[in-house]
Amino acid sequence: MAGAFEWIALVSAVCLFAGMLLLAEVGRRMAAARRASDPEGAGKGGGAAEAGVFGLLGLLIAFTFSGAALRFEDRRHLISDEANAIGTAYLRLDLLPDDAQAAIRDLFRKYADLRATAYGDADLQAASRRLSDGAALQGEIWAKAWAACRRPDAPAQAAMLLLPAVNEMIDITTTRATATENHPPAVVFLLLGGLCLIGALLVGYGTAPDQSRSWFHPVIFAAVLSVTVYVIIDVEFPRLGLIRVDAADHVLLDLRKSMQ
Q: How far apart are CA 181 and CA 223, in angstroms?
């Protein structure tokens, strides 16, 4: 899946680059045709339109890039938050009677193994299986923790401290799952691509007064925007592209190693 996504993102960026070059040439020819029919008015009246389009394009790029970067950081922080929640609940198992701890600790180790690799698997079916297994383990952990806290020999603090920690550990999985699906509407990306193409058309129109055809400005414009859009998409889907959030998973892996 990751490889397929990377190819799709790359092909999309290349198509956007080619489309911008094509529209730059169309814009140049439109300007040349107007200059031939109206030499006096060919260069008038376009400044306000160009300023509006390029201003909106700059704002949209800033909006999508900053939003993608913020969501990327949020996903990294959520991994740390989940590791903290699991670690806290695991430490509070010490409040339970000794003979009740062993079985629950084994479940915690299995759960940490699953959560550390839940989102890093490129195989969607395997990832879905891990998430389902994790949900089943949550039910087992909660049932055993609740039963252990109700034992007559369990201290009163066990229910007050352990059960809220287990509940937080379970709740954060929903928060992480929601964060992976949190993206701007598709229309935002379509608008961004459309503004890039319109901007290329205006760049071509603006370079028409040159005596000889120059590809320097259209190529630079198209290349910069294509790479920018590619990076935005890569950051927006950090489990599928070159820019990855997987490095943050080491927090969960380190936590699992500490559960001996």
A: 29
The pTM assigned to this predicted structure is: 0.82
Q: Are 137 and 114 in contact (CB under 8 A)?
A: yes
What are the structural domain ranges in the chain?
2-258
Concatenate the DSSP letters of all residues of 50-115 into one string: HHHHHHHHHHHHHHHHHHHHHHHHHHHHHHHHHHHHHHHHHHGGGGS-HHHHHHHHHHHHHHHHHH
Structure tokens at 233: 């998409």
Q: Using CA atoms, how far apart are residues 168 and 174, in angstroms rounded to an integer? A: 10
By the 10 Å C-beta count (0-12 exposed, 13-18 middle, 19+ buried), 190 is classed as: exposed
The two tokens of residue 250 are: 């080491």
Residue 96 phi, psi dihedral angles, 5° rounding: -80, 160
Cα separation of 39 and 34, whole Å?
Answer: 7
DSSP 232-245: HHHHHSTTTSSS-S
> Do residues 13 and 250 lie in contact, with contact meaning Cβ atoms separated by under 8 Å?
no
pLDDT at residue 167, rounded to an integer: 95
If you average pLDDT over each of 40-44, 160-164, 178-182, which comes out highest?
160-164
Q: What is the pLDDT of residues 105-154, one digit of tens each?
A: 999 999 998 888 887 665 556 667 777 888 899 999 999 999 999 999 99
